[in-house]
Structure prediction request, 256 residues.
Amino acid sequence: MDTETLVKRTLEEHFNLQVEKIPESDKRTPDFLVSDGINEYLIEVKEKEANPELGEAREEAFSRGEIFEISEALATKSVLQNVVRDGRRQIKAHVTDDSTFRVVWVHCTGLAYDATLEQIIAGLYGSETVVDFSSGEAFAGTCYYFGFSQFFKYRDSIDAVMVTGRKGEATLCVNNHSPRYESFKASLLVQSMPVGVRDPIYEEKEGCAFVVQGEVDRSKPNEVLSYLKEKYKTDKLNVMKMSHMEVHMAVPHRKM
Prediction:
């Protein structure tokens, strides 16, 4: 099943939405116009395969009888940001009503696709993992908007990004900087996902995340840390750079 068909079926069967394919033209357009009976959504679908060279490298390792290891830093990459940027452009060129929701849907495939998924989310929110070492019960988790974020940059033109994986994972990343943030949160698309919604404002209220909201230079991590220490009243806060690790091993088949 191709990615567009998968997305269309998911929107219709899981979310109970009405989905209309937008005809292709000389101009680049989004893929779908979607309705829940009250709201309309423009959705552009993108597929992103993790580095194809990983598959070739794995086969070479297997041919030598070796274990194949993958290590990917969970930081954003420009090539992944381009996927979201291009989706946003296609939607923006087609918008005729300010109330229409704008959603980019990125489906991740290939080896270490789940690392790609996390790297996309990191770019959307400019997020980092931070740990408070002041006590064993102190905060350790995601800090949103620690660095530059696509959601802030595209706050007028992207309401959310749905990031899905080839094993059925789904994360709906909500842009809390959008002028349609409150109405989008109340939409059927969000309400139909009891789990899997990322919302920095909600997560901060629940004590599950830190959020940088003030005027601070994101190009200077030490200044951002100083801001966080003052906001959350702690002096032992550090950034932890996270990585994705995988180990692959070929298992020979016994001949009967």
User: Anything to note?
Assistant: The two ends are 34 Å apart (CA to CA). Residues 3-125+150-200 form one domain. Residues 39 and 198 are 21 Å apart (CA to CA).
